[in-house]
Write a structure and sequence with these properties.
By secondary structure, the protein is an all-beta fold. Helices cover about 0% and strands about 40% of the residues. It has no helices and 15 strands. Strand 12 and strand 13 form a beta hairpin.
């Protein structure tokens, strides 16, 4: 029996990809469905960067929004992964670069970790999760330092993510809810000037 690719979130779009590349579930036409069929359970791929389409919808949000001159991008590498790269500058009171995904339902009830399959350059990076669709919104962040020049699995407990807004912690913000994640981001900050490059194969919730 022929199988169809169906997005978890857009059941009417059978056989097509929705706005969130990399989040595709293969299901037989005859597979039974119940009231919980649309609820993802860990492990759940947020993004698997094995095609050029997987980086569509990601955009740079650098310190240029506050007058800085840092720059970054997330692009597809022909070797089969994405690369977050650019240059951080401390000029004009800058010092950070980041990219963020398109907004959409990315949550996974029951997840306790965000897992990133990445290869680094010796620099520290931040994983950022958002529970709203807005641009100027609270992000939940935690740092990680992927292996230098080697691929490694970075496991980030969701309890380690701290709420932040415009570079400052928000101590009384609601707790991060794995089921309510709407955007995903990557950032480099902490006055780590000069060029950087972070390779990513996948980001998932477990």
């Amino acid at each position: 029996m022929r199988s169809l690719s169906r997005c978890r979130w857009c059941p009417k779009l059978r056989g097509r990809r929705c706005f969130a590349p990399g989040r595709i579930l293969t299901e037989s036409r005859s597979a039974p469905r119940d009231d919980n069929s649309q609820v993802p359970h860990p492990p759940f791929d947020l993004y698997r960067f094995d095609t050029a389409q997987a980086v569509a919808g990601w955009r740079a949000i650098d310190d240029r929004v506050m007058g800085g001159v840092s720059r970054s991008r997330l692009h597809f590498n022909a070797a089969g992964h994405a690369t977050f790269d650019g240059e951080v500058s401390l000029e004009q009171n800058g010092g950070f670069a980041s990219v963020r995904s398109a907004a959409g339902p990315l949550g996974a009830p029951g997840a306790t970790e965000c897992v990133i399959d990445a290869r680094g350059d010796g620099k520290r990076y931040k994983m950022c999760l958002f529970m709203v669709d807005g641009f100027d919104a609270i992000s939940y962040q935690t740092e990680f330092t992927p292996p230098r020049h080697d691929w490694g699995v970075n496991r980030l407990p969701l309890t380690a993510f701290a709420a932040s807004l415009r570079g400052r912690q928000v101590p009384h913000a609601p707790a991060l809810d794995a089921a309510g994640i709407r955007q995903v981001g990557l950032m480099i900050s902490g006055r780590q000037a000069r060029r950087f490059a972070l390779d990513i194969r996948a980001i998932r919730l477990e």
